[in-house]
UniProtKB/TrEMBL annotation:
<keyword id="KW-0963">Cytoplasm</keyword>
<feature type="domain" description="PurM-like C-terminal">
    <location>
        <begin position="173"/>
        <end position="341"/>
    </location>
</feature>
<keyword id="KW-0658">Purine biosynthesis</keyword>
<dbReference type="InterPro" id="IPR016188">
    <property type="entry name" value="PurM-like_N"/>
</dbReference>
<comment type="pathway">
    <text>Purine metabolism; IMP biosynthesis via de novo pathway; 5-amino-1-(5-phospho-D-ribosyl)imidazole from N(2)-formyl-N(1)-(5-phospho-D-ribosyl)glycinamide: step 2/2.</text>
</comment>
<dbReference type="GO" id="GO:0004637">
    <property type="term" value="F:phosphoribosylamine-glycine ligase activity"/>
</dbReference>
<dbReference type="Pfam" id="PF00586">
    <property type="entry name" value="AIRS"/>
</dbReference>
<dbReference type="GO" id="GO:0004641">
    <property type="term" value="F:phosphoribosylformylglycinamidine cyclo-ligase activity"/>
</dbReference>
<feature type="domain" description="PurM-like N-terminal">
    <location>
        <begin position="56"/>
        <end position="161"/>
    </location>
</feature>
<dbReference type="GO" id="GO:0046084">
    <property type="term" value="P:adenine biosynthetic process"/>
</dbReference>
<dbReference type="InterPro" id="IPR036921">
    <property type="entry name" value="PurM-like_N_sf"/>
</dbReference>
<dbReference type="Pfam" id="PF02769">
    <property type="entry name" value="AIRS_C"/>
</dbReference>
<dbReference type="InterPro" id="IPR004733">
    <property type="entry name" value="PurM_cligase"/>
</dbReference>
<dbReference type="InterPro" id="IPR036676">
    <property type="entry name" value="PurM-like_C_sf"/>
</dbReference>
<dbReference type="GO" id="GO:0005524">
    <property type="term" value="F:ATP binding"/>
</dbReference>
<dbReference type="InterPro" id="IPR010918">
    <property type="entry name" value="PurM-like_C_dom"/>
</dbReference>
<protein>
    <recommendedName>
        <fullName>Phosphoribosylformylglycinamidine cyclo-ligase</fullName>
        <ecNumber>6.3.3.1</ecNumber>
    </recommendedName>
</protein>
Length: 347
């Protein structure tokens, strides 16, 4: 007889995965969470927002992209969750929103409970670090669509910001200083290019020890995305921040331009920092032009903030308290056009 199991879907494995992940999800709670996992919907007590004068809800949806291929090849699954959470909550924080809760979606060819629990472990730990709750999620088994060891990870998150504290282009002024915040590496963008260069063109293996990186190629490529939520919220609370931009797909110039008004422009000086060696290796091994590198990769800057000139030093000091290296990398100019220009050469 034909059964669901014979079609490749194991309900029992799914139930086992839920049991294994419960301890990690419990670590990513907020007081406003009602109930636990296993229901049809996650519950969050919205009365927590009653003290806001005019609360604006912010939401974001994203995935990890082809970086999951590195995790699968290395059989290391407890860090990819940091990449998911970073892609989600740090899109919220740029407008000044505090992330409240997150839901995830894991699609896989075959549910291996321990692997699913490992993925959720990373998501939950990252949520706890970012201060948001892992409110719920879904694990879907897709035999025939994905290979047994393949999976993809996506999610959505919701946050809140007081209307009069909303950050954005309308606050940016000529003379504002652009503060760059160091990335932890590639983060979770440009991996289609990165994989093509290292694997297809250079023929390197994940196990290769790379002197310039001080580690194996696989370990360098799997370095988790840095989480900026708490440092940036503190930055907004303690300094005169006008706008922030999360540097993801599109690179530094394109993402920064999203928060530059049409009547102003931004000039960023490459000479204020030296990108991590991994970026140079991608360019060198793949003969990738600097412009293409800068469009696909973050080049060592994961987030930028535009602050009032007399708060620039304070901004760097606040971020240092959170262990985030930062520096003044540019300035907002009165030139019209809303453009972001990178000038000079990297240090």
């Amino acid at each position: 007889m034909t059964s669901y199991a014979s079609a490749g879907v194991s309900v029992e494995a799914g139930d086992r995965a839920v049991e294994l992940m419960k301890e990690w999800v419990a670590q990513a709670r907020r007081p406003e969470v009602v109930g636990g996992i296993g229901g049809f919907a996650g519950l969050f007590d919205a009365s927590a927002l009653k003290d806001y004068r005019r609360p604006l809800l912010a939401t974001s949806a994203d995935g990890v992209g082809t970086k999951v291929a590195i995790a699968q090849r290395m059989d290391v699954h407890d860090t990819i969750g940091y990449d998911l959470v970073g892609m989600l909550v740090d899109d919220l924080v740029v407008c000044g929103a505090e992330p409240l809760f997150l839901t995830d979606y894991i699609a896989t060819g075959k549910v291996v409970p321990e692997r699913i629990a490992s993925i959720v472990k990373g998501i939950a730990q990252a949520c706890a670090e970012a201060g948001c709750a892992l409110l719920g999620g879904e694990t879907a088994e897709h035999p025939g669509l994905l290979a047994p060891d393949e999976y993809d990870v996506a999610g959505s998150t919701t946050g809140v910001v007081e209307a009069d504290a909303l950050l954005g282009a309308e606050r940016v002024r000529a003379g504002d200083v652009v503060i760059a915040m160091a990335s932890s590496g590639l983060h979770s963008n440009g991996y289609s290019l990165v994989r093509k260069v290292f694997f297809d063109i250079a023929g390197w293996s994940l196990e290769r020890e790379v002197a310039e990186l001080g580690t194996t190629l696989g370990e360098a490529l799997l370095t988790p995305t840095r989480l900026y939520a708490k440092p940036c919220l503190d930055l907004a609370a303690r300094t005169d921040v006008h706008a922030m931009s999360h540097i993801t797909g599109g690179g530094l110039a394109a993402n920064t331009a999203r928060v530059v008004p049409d009547h102003l422009s931004v000039e960023i000086e490459r000479g204020t920092w030296a990108p991590d060696p991994v970026f140079g290796l991608v360019g060198e091994l793949g003969s990738v032009a600097r412009g293409d590198l800068e469009h696909a990769l973050n080049m060592g800057v994961g987030m930028v903030a535009m602050v009032a000139p007399d708060h620039a030093d304070a901004a760097v000091a606040v971020l240092a308290e959170h262990g985030v290296a930062s520096w003044a990398c540019g300035r907002v100019t009165s030139a019209a056009g809303g453009e972001v220009t990178l000038v000079g050469d990297y240090a």
